[in-house]
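=== RUN LOG ===
request id: a7f3
mode: sequence -> structure
chains: 1
length: 424
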Amino acid sequence: MPSLRAVVVLGLSVVSTSLAAVVPGFNYGSQKVRGVNLGGWLVLEPWITPSLFDNTGDSRIVDEYTFGQYQDTDEALGVLQNHWNTWITEADFQAIAAAGLNHVRIPIGYWAYDVSGGEPYIQGQLPYLAKAVSWAGKYGIKVIVDLHEDVESVSPIILPLSPFGVLKNRCRSWYLLQSNIDRTNAIIKQIANTYKDSTSVVPAIAALNEPKGSLGQKMLDVTKQQSNTVLVIADAFKGLDYWRGFMPSPNWEGVMMDTHIYQMFSDGVSCCVCVEKLVADIENHQENHRSNQEHISNACSHGSSLSSFSLWVIVGEWTPAATDCAKYLNGRGKGSRYDGSFPGSSRVGSCTGLTGKASSFSSDYKTFLGQYWEAQTSTYEQGQGWIQWAWKTEIADEWSYQAGLANGWIPQNPKTRAYPNICG
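=== RESULT ===
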């Protein structure tokens, strides 16, 4: 099998200077991306909105797939419609703009477009995505539409190991089935066609979120660029060094790399080799054992790789949270590695005061959240910028941009630097 770099070149061969020059709807390269993910809205995350799952009274319901699988369809639809109507509204976009942010990244599942494979997902998300684009245009915010899940031919294997809810089987070979490829291709084309004339508001599309690293030609064939839309490709958790020198200018344009940086999960979470190795990597990792200063120093260490990278690069997911203490972060009903309640983990300390509502946070902890936030944003702006996960949460304020603004560890102006020498 050819290398990942080689197959991406083949799969993205249309994105070159042989075509008309790409004119993005945002000045990537000269203006920094500062934004938030609208996580937990159009793709459910049990840890972002645990009440939606707890209120079912059914422990089998651990993600959006099982949310539709184990409930009456009309009942599930009613709950979701209320959630879609209330979790993110026009007022959120107004607040995001007032906070000085210029981007939102909106995750959307393939099932919003296609459940022809018989999946039990509940549809109805697309009108809300259209509303979001309209609100973004009104308040001068740019949208990255992120296809957050690819087409699967069968019910996903559930593993209690994911940073966000549950880890669906990332070792699946969905792209080896032509029917899955065709469905995914059609969905991406539909997204691209929907927004190809709206790049002033939707300048970029992320074709696949956090894909497996050992992708074949067939998978990359579905991520071809159209019009002036910038194509965002994930680094597949290979790290930026793997991609250094990839698609150099002036031979290529209109492509952006997206890397995700977290410091509470093992690299094994996203590097799919086999389930046994993945479990061992997670159980043996040391990220939760870092001191606050070590977390900050690690964040600062990414600056040189971001600033010297050959493509536009954004950090599309990250957080000021430094532990996995948030309820259901490792899966509904699963505990935390930090406090040792996750099976096989080594306890670091108590989660008390490290997650929940900000009213329970000490002043020292809020100071750390502010320092860690600033260390990351300052560093990530050595690339093209950042998009924090997430805008809001029900009960995990340490992850919430909205809560950070309200409680003082995130400044009202994201350019403000209270700790200008945080990275030395």
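=== NOTES ===
Confidence is low (pLDDT under 50) at residues 1-19, 153-172, 213-223, 267-284.
The first strand starts at residue 33 and ends at 37.
=== END ===
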